[in-house]
Amino acid sequence: xxxxxxxxxxxxxxxxxxxxxxxxxxxxxxxxxxxxxxxxxxxxxxxxxxxxxxxxxxxxxxxxxxxxxxxxxxxxxxxxxxxxxx
Length: 86
What we know:
It is a single chain. By secondary structure, the protein is of the alpha+beta class. It is 36% helix and 9% strand. The radius of gyration is 13 Å and the shape is globular. Strands 1-2 form a two-stranded parallel ribbon.
């Protein structure tokens, strides 16, 4: 995806240390330009503040982002309420 011009990053409610270990174990850590976590941005998903902090750090508008959920069956209603899915 990066070769196609997409900037990839992660956002998790896990601690940054745990996120890094999981990505390293899966061999995926090198695919992401930035990694955000609840402890680094001081907010949990799916709060509006969590997404706003990531947008501020990346210097982008919400319309420039695409959210992909990693856990099948995750309810989408909280993300809709946070204004991050259309």
